[in-house]
Amino acid sequence: MIRKLLIANRGEIAARIIRTCRSLGIRTVAVYSDADARADYVLQADEAVHIGAAPAPQSYLNIDAILRAARHTHADAIHPGYGFLSERAHFAQAVIDAGLTWIGPSPEVITLMGDKRRAKLALKAIPLVPGYNGDDQENAIFHAEAEAIGYPVMVKAAAGGGGRGMRIVTSASTLEDALEGARHEALQAFGDSTLLLEKYIERPRHIEVQILGDAAGHVAALGERECSIQRRHQKIIEETPSPALTSIQREAICAAAVSIGQQIGYLNAGTVEFILDQAGNFYFLEMNTRLQVEHPVTEAAFNIDLVEWQIRIAEGAPLPAEGFPSQAQRHAIEARLYAEDPSSGFLPSTGAILRAKLGDTVRIDAGLGDEVSTYYDPMLAKLIASAPTRAEAIRKLDYALSQITLLGIRHNAGFLRRVIAYSDFQSGSFDTGFIERHADLLPDPPPPPHVWIAAAIAKLKLDGAGIFWRNNPYRPIRQTFAINTLEQSVFLTPHTPDQFSISVEDQHFTVRTFPDQPEWLEIDAVRHYLPVANLDDAWWVQTPEAIYALNWVSPLPAGISQSSSQGSLLSPMPGQIVKILVKTGQQVNKGDLLLVIEAMKMEHRITAPYDGQVAALHFEAGQPVQSGVKLLDLMPSE
Ligand code: ADP
User: Fold this and answer.
1) What is the pLDDT of residue 120?
2) What pTM, to 2 d.p., does this model score?
3) Among 117, 205, 250, 290, which one carries the catalytic annotation?
């Protein structure tokens, strides 16, 4: 029996595992890096051990430090969560060698399934995407194989995960470029540059099956999860049952997943991923030998606790003799709340979390700290709604998303609402290209006057509104803010400290504030919940539709001109320069690749915003860069 379990992970997944352990009466040990010293999950655990500096290799990927923490605290089991070390066979082996219980499959199975090529070669009678899984990694071989498969093809890292090392190639002319890029990314991310080829399936759906296997060799499927709403090949909305499957297809895909589990002797919880083509054929993609981020939809639809089953199986318990229900009893849907900006290519957003209120109308798995750093995945929380029907579950999710207040960083709650409100989503007819095809859903709506008003009032109150209204009773006070290049002045005439006449964009409003309820504003007799927070001159306003970041513009003329014309020559985010493709003095054309920055596990390509000549490079490859700094000078051509 497990009495004390160490969680080799952080954030929402650590908090999630702690919840189940508490219900089972198992003590928990959290581990944390410098960056997570004040994170929620650390406080929720019964014990916590500091394991190192913020960069993951020095903490969450440091096997020695984690095993030392387990020894010090006398933990008898380790749960790896997902990401980090969860699919590293040598970590599983080290845990077992240390005499601890490993919550997961055997190291051999992790190794086999961790290599997409070997996994495919090992499976019998399972439909595979046509492709090349050979050892020979010469470019010439890939050319020949791609011709044989037929373009478009997909280049993938054999060790891949998280969408990294993956490229779609539409013609032979761009294959070598894609191979080179994928190899580089794969080597950086996984220490292994082996690639494979797959036929690129047009407009596919991503459908995966949750399985559980016990020590006696029984394998059961717990329905499928539809994960086709993706950005950058990464899931953001998941649900079960899939609106795409007939019951016959469901039975077939679950049977294939169970067969895979049986063929490899799968123990514990795992996920078999498939791709479904437009004709309704499904093909095995890969297997994840761990719990998935999206496991809560299965839990909600099947009324089951998967972490509890993981622990029980690790303790040697069998799957229930009567089996699990073969079909979901409810519809469940999950949305991932990310610190990112959909309108600028989903760039991760970092910074202090000034205020967070995530709501309580649906299940929310969160693990917030007081800041979002560049060190880890930018996922903040997951919202999981379930109901008897899909339409009702979507309605609950939409409401829950509208309740989110998260100030200080950009996040995607408004975008998620726009996605699930879209007719094709509601009718269930979508595929993995949905977001790419609906660029119109990316930008937040323009700020309504309420947003400018809320910021202006908050600023006035911070400055001491009382002084203003007493000293200048008849002159409106002007507050100017900017959102990117859009500047707006708000004119406030205070009548009392809590009553104002306000004009914005030539519209006039009567506004009341409430000293005890600073987040509420009454605007023309209607009360609005408009939480605001600021850090220096950055003012954040949350509405149910979007998060707005306003910059207060000083009325003083000196030195405040904005450098928006620099465009993409500024570092979009803190990170590291991976590659510089130009030299000082070089002539470049608009759109040419100048340099590549890596941050938060993603590569960002900085391209020339106009024709010109490189006048100066401010960094070298390998150097860290802060957000917003100028990377190079580009003199525009005449
Ligand atoms: P990773 O392990 O990096 O997440 P996967 O192999 O699981 O990569 O694929 C991730 C996503 O990429 C899939 O959900 C799907 O959207 C897309 N994808 C993968 N393989 C193909 C393919 N052969 N054709 C079309 N899309 C694919």
Assistant:
1) 95
2) 0.87
3) 290
